[in-house]
Automatic annotation (TrEMBL):
Broad class of where this protein is predominantly found: membrane
Signal peptide: 1-17
Stored Pfam families: Lig_chan (PF00060)
Keyword Hydrolase in annotation: no
GO cellular component, one term: plasma membrane
Keyword annotations from UniProtKB, A to Z: Cell membrane, Glycoprotein, Membrane, Receptor, Signal, Transmembrane, Transmembrane helix
GO biological process: detection of chemical stimulus involved in sensory perception
Protein name (record): Ionotropic glutamate receptor C-terminal domain-containing protein
GO molecular function, one term: ligand-gated monoatomic ion channel activity
Residue ranges constituting the Ionotropic glutamate receptor C-terminal domain according to the UniProt record: 422-719
Record has Cell cycle as a keyword: no
Organism (species): Drosophila navojoa
């Protein structure tokens, strides 16, 4: 009530209306009643009112009546339980509408202002949206001329005129599904008779846009199988061609130059044809600028921030196109420029690399056990010999004191003297045989440690070996070693090796982001992504692994910062199929899967699902027919028609591949039948060899000597090692022989010298007295 009184006091001092439009003085209570009933026909959640001093609402004769009429209108509005807010400043009013749009709140706005000036500002600030309805109280007998006021879509505008004192007409610019917004009479209010002619006040968007009555839509496309199959030509005479490759520039599109595109098929093409049948519209394909979905410019030539997009999304943003299909992924940056329908594809992000290659057959004998098992196995074999030696030597170490053994030996005969003394009164003294007493303590076998080492090695290598020792502890440990070597190691190893020979081992697949990052750092993999795609936005704006991968992509080609961008996913699959370098392509899983099937599924490796992504039909922001489009798409999705169309595209591709293979077979048969000369024979043989080679690759390869090269290499290494040991032993034996001969010579030389000295002394002793 206080706000209404304040508004009324302000109206007293405001000037009368400008004399630009004729106005008939009348009782303003009728206007208040009519406007309140018109607002009631809309059933709004809230109402925003913009009042300016120059508005026609103030063009009355009496200022006191003015205050009463405003108070009367607000009272009537509040009696109908509607919330309202009044603005006197246009900027605050527009900020309020923008805040509602950000919160996706539907709002109805009653404006007492000239529509030509305000509509331009609404379009400039991009506040034209299907959620905002702008009601202009014109007050004149006829609506404004179309040359003066043009309400462009998607702006929803209502103009209220007053042809008679008690009659009001309501004109709506979206009463027809045409492209041009034309004001049409949709309802009226008669204060002398029945009030509103019908309720609700305006026709619903679902009823208006259920049938477009042949309206023409422009749809930007580019070649992106399986969504669109586009054939390009080099005709530079077409409008907007720009250059010889048929790729028009964005300036030419903005000037209205459309280059038509020739679409030959695709899943989204079928979807668009189905939508045309349901909603009765026509469409025309135009080539997207740069043949990309579009990327955020970021900055313009002057270095200022620029939130506009390139490509097909840029055409939607500037109002040059109506639809945009073809695996258009949803993202936060794109939602600021365009809107999306109900999703047409529930997809996920993935990347594709080459199929895991076959590993080197020379190391096949090492692959039955993983790398982390071999160290434990080697340590087990190494420590088995010392453990075996410890078990045998342990009893000898326990006997610290010598034990007197009353045993006499006569050759191999053992005589226990204590027993003999017990059973006989006297002991026969055998004098012709010398008794041999055994040592007072048990002696260890000679070279026991070396024998234990070689015994365990021969046991684990499944070679024949004799029992090393005869006590029970040694026998039990031998049995344990034998079971472990036979059933745990040998059988498991043989089974694994046989299975790997039957299906040769391949590299570990690169199917996660962690493995891809490691492959880029270790093996020099190059990651590529389609320019202007949602996958590129994920890399640019992602966190953690995506940010690190994007940094590595920019570093993989220092000379060309955009070298990792490709024209399409199909081009990336071709790069992988070349097989010259290690490459990977990031994109939508469905798109990657389709192109992989096209070029041979066995040549590629598709990763796991990295993240969830949805594709939908992109439309202009605030598109008035988005709800109708969503209704049709939801019915197609619930009926499984979208899934059927996707599967049908795959089946069509499979039929095409079968047809191509049959054609190739016919050509091959024709070549074989028409081999009139040697060159033709050579060519047919080469083609046959290639076909046979491809069939052999598809089948499981049989066992051959190439697979057993590891065993032969191990055998060769064993021979070389044995030869080296033999040479070393011979050299050591020769060295020992030389040392022995030297010692023998030194020993005989000493003896000879001693003999000579002895003989000299004897000679001196014998002949010295005679000489004296």
């Amino acid at each position: 009530m206080q706000l209404s009184l304040l508004f009324g006091l302000c109206l007293i001092h405001w000037p009368l209306a400008r004399p630009l439009l004729s106005y008939r003085p009348c009782n303003e209570s009728v206007v208040a009643i009519a406007l309140s009933q018109i607002i009631h026909g809309l059933q709004p959640r809230q109402l925003a009112i913009l009042a300016k001093p120059s508005s026609r609402w103030l063009s009355v004769d009496c200022a006191n009546n003015d205050t009463i009429q405003v108070d009367d209108f607000i009272q009537r509005l509040h009696k109908l339980y509607y919330k309202s807010v009044i603005f006197y400043d246009t900027e605050l009013f527009l900020d309020y509408i923008e805040a509602n749009l950000l919160g996706a709140i539907e709002c109805v706005n009653l404006i007492f202002h000239e529509p030509d000036e305000l509509s331009a500002r609404i379009q400039e600030r991009r506040l034209a949206h299907r959620l905002s309805l702008y009601m202009f109280y014109w007050g004149a007998s006829k609506p404004p001329n179309a040359t003066r006021v043009n309400f462009e879509q998607p702006m929803r505008a209502v103009v209220i005129t007053r042809p008679r004192p008690n009659a009001f007409r309501i004109y709506y610019n979206q009463a027809m599904p045409t492209a041009k917004s034309q004001l049409r009479l949709v309802n009226w209010y008669d204060g002398d008779n029945l009030g509103l002619q019908k309720t609700p006040l305006l026709p619903s968007a679902a009823s208006v846009y259920a049938n477009f009555q042949g309206r023409l839509f422009h749809v930007p496309v580019f070649h992106s199988p399986p969504w669109f199959w586009v054939s390009y030509n080099n005709d530079s005479n077409n409008v907007g061609s720009g250059n010889g490759n048929g790729n028009g520039t964005e300036e030419e599109y903005e000037n209205g130059g459309y280059k038509k595109a020739n679409v030959t098929g695709g899943r989204d093409h079928q979807l668009l044809v189905l939508l045309r049948q349901h909603m009765n519209f026509t469409f025309e394909y135009i080539e997207a600028p740069g043949r990309t979905q579009g990327a955020l410019r970021g900055t313009d030539d002057n270095g200022e921030a620029n939130d506009s997009f390139t490509g097909g999304i840029g055409m939607l943003q500037s109002g040059l196109a109506d639809f945009f299909l073809g695996d258009v992924g949803l993202s936060w940056e794109r939602r600021k420029a365009i809107e999306f329908s109900f999703f047409t594809l529930a997809d996920s992000g993935a990347f594709a690399t080459h199929a895991p290659r076959r590993l080197n057959e020379a190391l096949a004998i090492m692959r039955p056990f993983k790398l982390d098992i071999w160290p434990y196995l080697i340590l087990t074999i190494v420590f088995s010999g010392p453990i075996f030696y410890g078990i045998i030597i342990m009893p000898y170490k326990w006997r610290r004191h010598r034990i007197a053994m009353d045993v006499e030996r006569l050759g191999e005969l053992c005589i226990h003297m204590a027993y003999i003394k017990e059973i006989t009164p006297c002991v026969l003294q055998v004098r012709h045989l010398r008794p041999v007493r055994p040592p007072t303590s048990a002696e260890m076998p000679p070279q026991l440690f070396e024998r234990c080492i070689w015994f365990t090695l021969r046991l684990f290598l499944k070679q024949s070996c004799h029992e090393l020792y005869h006590d029970y502890r040694t026998k039990f440990l031998t049995i344990v070693y034998w079971v472990a070597a036979t059933y745990v190691l040998a059988d498991v190893y043989s089974a694994q090796l046989t299975s790997q020979f039957a299906r040769p081992a391949h590299e570990a697949p690169i199917n996660t982001l962690q493995r891809l990052q490691a492959a880029m750092l270790r093996d020099g993999y190059r990651l590529y992504v389609e320019k202007g795609s949602s996958s590129l936005e994920m890399l640019e704006n992602g966190t953690e692994l995506f940010r690190q991968l994007y940094a590595q992509m920019r570093q993989q080609q220092p000379n060309d910062q955009q070298g990792f961008l490709i024209d399409s996913v199909e081009a990336g699959i071709k790069l992988i199929a070349d097989g010259r370098e290690n490459k990977a392509v990031l994109g939508g899983r469905e798109t990657l899967y389709f192109n992989i099937q096209q070029y041979g599924a066995k040549k590629f490796q598709l990763s796991q699902k990295l993240y969830t992504r949805y594709s939908a039909v992109a439309v202009q922001i605030g598109c008035p027919f988005l709800d109708s489009l969503n209704d049709v798409l939801m019915r197609l999705f619930e009926g499984g028609i979208l899934e059927k169309m996707t599967t049908g595209e795959y089946e069509a591709q499979a039929r095409q591949m079968t047809k191509d293979q049959a054609q190739q077979s016919k050509e091959l048969a024709a070549v074989e039948n028409a081999n009139a000369n040697a060159n033709a024979n050579v060519m047919s043989n080469e083609v046959k060899d290639q076909a046979q080679h491809s069939q052999d690759n598809e089948m499981i390869s049989a066992l051959n000597l190439r697979m057993l090269q590891g065993a032969f290499i191990a055998l060769g290494v064993g021979f070389v090692t044995a030869a080296l040991m033999l040479l070393l032993e011979l050299f050591w034996r020769r060295l020992n022989l030389a040392l022995s001969l030297r010692r023998w010579r030194l020993r005989w030389l000493r003896r000879w010298r001693r003999l000579k000295r002895t003989l000299r002394q004897l000679t001196v002793r014998i002949f010295a007295p005679n000489l004296g």
